[in-house]
């Protein structure tokens, strides 16, 4: 059946841009909070809780916003959550970690909308034989958002302070949202049978059906296993994202600008790694082999991060960050594409949301547990070592296709 739709390039470009900005909105938290906490006297471990709050916002969107995604369309919903996140950045000027936590929850809603929206659009528009690559290109927007945050925010803070940096971040979020606003009418596909009901009624119905996305993962064992794989990968990734900057600043006495640059290098590895892993997976026709390789390197780099010494040459730390970005932060595109491939065609949005719920739940628990471990023991090395072990467990749960 023919569709009156743009070519595949337009949806991929629009989703890529919005995915990048959604990631930027989340990645600014572990970079800008050290400067805010220094002024307001918050503890260093507060970053873990604020990062967990950001993930909680994504989880709220995944479990309660499914009806909104159906009613308004994925792209439009993502745009609206980005606007909300930009507005809530103003709450950081109030010297309360609880208010900041509320802001982080609201800012995280865009991440909850990004994966279901992107999966549904790309599943319809990806060229045959290039689905893994298209999903990986879309997911490359996540570390690209981290690169923008790591390079721009510390510089703005050094020159004009963190309040001006927040204003600049709001502009960065709102501009691409405005540029892609009219495209959503063409890209989005609304489900039949829901257009006659108000969105709030659909959302209330969704609140009574929170188990639907998770239940959809039980359609087959391989689908459930590949979703568990994503949650295991998320442990190391969330710890890298949340604690790299504060770890380098507090434990190794790096400047915020240098720590931000190292964070950006790690995110650059994520951009290249996600595209490379997607291309390799398509060439090998095996997500299992690709994700196995990523798991091994993720475990090694994460464990080694906790044993960095201040006298290490800078290039070794940059290399470690880059390799971690290529592996610990690059599994997403292949894993999400595999979830879509194993999903029934009429449940792609639900299984993408279900898999994202598992990953998002880990993104809440892992940074919180990491923060508690650091606050109680002061040992970053053991905490990163435990996160690396979780990456090795990926090898146990990866489904085997017999290839």
UniProtKB/TrEMBL annotation:
Keywords: Membrane, Transmembrane, Transmembrane helix
Span of domain Major facilitator superfamily (MFS) profile: 11-403
Superkingdom field: Bacteria
Pfam families tied to this protein: MFS_1
InterPro entries: MFS, MFS-Transporter, MFS_dom, MFS_trans_sf
Gene Ontology MF terms: transmembrane transporter activity
Phosphoprotein as UniProt keyword: no
Residue ranges of the TM segments: 47-69, 81-109, 133-153, 224-248, 254-277, 289-308, 314-334, 355-376, 382-398
PROSITE patterns membership: MFS (PS50850)
Entry-linked PANTHER family: BLL3282 PROTEIN
Protein name as annotated: MFS family permease
Natural source organism: Pigmentiphaga litoralis
Lineage, top ranks: Bacteria, Pseudomonadati, Pseudomonadota, Betaproteobacteria, Burkholderiales
């Amino acid at each position: 059946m023919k569709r009156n739709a743009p070519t595949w390039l337009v949806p991929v470009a629009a989703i890529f841009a919005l995915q990048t900005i959604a990631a930027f909105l989340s990645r600014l938290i572990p970079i800008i909070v050290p400067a805010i906490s220094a002024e307001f006297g918050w503890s260093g471990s507060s970053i873990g809780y604020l990062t967990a709050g950001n993930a909680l916002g994504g989880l709220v969107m995944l479990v309660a916003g499914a009806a909104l995604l159906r009613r308004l369309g994925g792209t439009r919903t993502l745009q609206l959550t980005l606007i909300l996140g930009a507005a809530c950045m103003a709450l950081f000027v109030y010297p309360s970690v609880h208010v900041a936590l509320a802001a982080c929850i609201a800012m995280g809603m865009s991440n909850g909308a990004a994966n279901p929206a992107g999966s549904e659009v790309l599943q319809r528009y990806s060229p045959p034989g290039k689905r893994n690559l298209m999903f990986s290109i879309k997911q490359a927007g996540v570390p690209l958002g981290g690169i923008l945050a790591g390079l721009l925010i510390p510089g703005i803070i050094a020159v004009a302070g963190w309040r001006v940096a927040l204003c600049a971040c709001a502009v960065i979020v709102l501009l691409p949202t405005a540029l892609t606003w009219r495209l959503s009418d063409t890209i989005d596909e609304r489900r039949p049978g829901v257009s006659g009901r108000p969105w709030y009624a659909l959302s209330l119905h969704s609140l009574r059906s929170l188990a639907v996305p998770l239940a959809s993962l039980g359609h087959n064992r391989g689908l459930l296993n590949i979703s568990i794989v994503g949650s295991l990968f998320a442990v190391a990734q969330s710890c890298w994202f949340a604690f790299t900057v504060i770890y380098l600043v507090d434990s190794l006495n790096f400047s915020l600008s240098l720590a931000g640059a190292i964070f950006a290098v790690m995110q650059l590895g994520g951009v290249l790694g996600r595209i490379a892993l997607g291309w390799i997976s398509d060439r090998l026709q095996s997500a299992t082999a690709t994700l196995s390789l990523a798991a091994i390197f993720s475990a090694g780099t994460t464990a080694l991060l906790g044993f960095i010494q201040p006298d290490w040459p800078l290039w070794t730390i940059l290399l470690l960050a880059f390799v971690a970005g290529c592996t610990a932060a690059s599994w997403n595109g292949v894993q999400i594409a595999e979830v879509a491939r194993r999903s029934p065609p009429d449940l792609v949005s639900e299984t993408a949301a279900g898999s994202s719920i598992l990953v998002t739940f880990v993104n809440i628990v892992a940074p919180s547990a990491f923060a508690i471990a650091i606050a109680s023991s002061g040992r970053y090395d053991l905490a990163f070592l435990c996160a690396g072990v979780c990456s090795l467990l990926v090898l146990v749960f990866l489904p085997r296709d017999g290839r």
